[in-house]
Amino acid sequence: MDLPELWGRFSRLSPDDADLASQFRLAPGGEVSLSFVLGGKEFGAVRARLKMSARDRDGYYNYSLTFQDRAQSDAIRSALLGR
Questions:
Q1: To the nearest 10°, the Cα dihedral for 54, 56, 59, 60?
Q2: Would you say residue 63 lies in a domain?
Q3: What range defines the domain where residue 54 resides?
């Protein structure tokens, strides 16, 4: 991805999609590469497409993401189920 390292916080996470809050503005319809720890397992370069974005009164951007890689979604599912 052509972006510097940015931060954000998941407000919702499922194997197929997620909601992310951040102070950084991203292009709608663009793709991001996420790195995070879930259930003690490190995930890196998880590809997601931005479906929707909105800015709240506090200046945070709220993004709706869809994960793009089935194998990565399966790994997230396993971590969420504690496997």
A1: -60
A2: yes
A3: 9-75
